[in-house]
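INFO  loader      accepted 1 record
INFO  loader      residues=65
INFO  predictor   begin
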Amino acid sequence: MAEAYGWLFVDFVPLLYEKRRVARQLQVETWLDLTQLLNELKLELVNGEKFGQNADVKPKVDYVA
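INFO  predictor   done
INFO  writer      dumping tokens
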């Protein structure tokens, strides 16, 4: 039985995983990412800056299937 594989990038390092594992990792990271929730509730961080506009926040990792 042939298995489907997809690329998972950790920083700029590509890793080849089964597509179901890549999809599951994306679900977990989406669940942990509070950007959408903050935007929908129109909330700001304590220091007054909106989430994602701070220069110290790392860019979001993209997945390629």
